[in-house]
Amino acid sequence: MFVIAEVTLRAYWLAGGRWGYTACDRTDLVDPAGGCGANQVETLPFWAGWGAAGFGVALAMLIMSAVRSPGRYAVAGSWTAAALLLVVAFPLHLLFEIPAALTGRPSDWRDLGARIALVIGGLLFAGLANACGPQRGARTAGYQPVPRWSRRWAYVAVALPVVGWAVPHGLWVLGVPFGIPQRQLDDIHRSLSTWTGVAITLVPPLAGLLVLGLVQRWGQQFPHWLPGLRGRPVPRLLAVVPAGVVALALVTYGVLSVAVLVRQVRTGDTHWSDVREGWAVTATLLVFLCWGVALAVTTTGYAIATRTRQERATNTGLSV
Fold this sequence. Notes:
By secondary structure, this protein is mainly alpha-helical. Helices cover 67% and strands 0% of the residues. It has 2 domains: 2-132, no CATH class; 148-319, no CATH class. It has 12 helices and no strands. α3 (72-89) runs antiparallel to α5 (109-132) and α6 (148-173) packs antiparallel against α8 (194-208).
């Protein structure tokens, strides 16, 4: 259904319709609710039109191949499709934009809806990859303790968004010019309402608490207060795939943001004095990068701890 809906929508756009289409990524954010003048766009960009339609057809062919002959090629193709869809969706963008939109900030709901659809599609293809893969032995019953180094990195991943994001943003919402010039603080208060600022401040650290599931029992076994799921093992990929994608998105955002800043300093568009004056904003770029690394290491520890007995026996046999 996801592929059919996406291909149908792209065909509709190619035929001249513009429902659900947005041009906000190429224009100023004027009238984001209306797609920033999407109805005035005559020619679609390649990846919004023919490119996306062709990719959808390729995904449809992949699904038919996986249904007819499941195997390692179908698994590899499905995992590749899941990774591409989740990376393009860029979940980190949703993490900030959805709370801001819900608190009243003008937002491009067409773009947010498209990204949510891509996330759903990525998760569906991850499920397809899991279904096409060989059925291995049942995972070791009970809680498998994660490595000690993984637990330490998990605490780092929880602390970083609190110290490096929530604290400075909370101070800015309160009107304290912590690490930024007063003029920039005034711009923040003019562009953001109080509730939007509170949402942007609290959502990342609250989302960061989910990292603890990778090192706690409730990340491997559903809690007893969940009806119908209590005590059952958490599907391994349900934790590994989302955590891995978010880690990749955080690292990518951090690296690209630092690269842009360095280029601006080298070309003279940004001066070192501006960087020093607004050091707290610059530091948040490093926070994202370090947060992604900490999450990636924690996810690796979870993946190691939750391997099946059969996988462990296989690895032991290969190492002998």
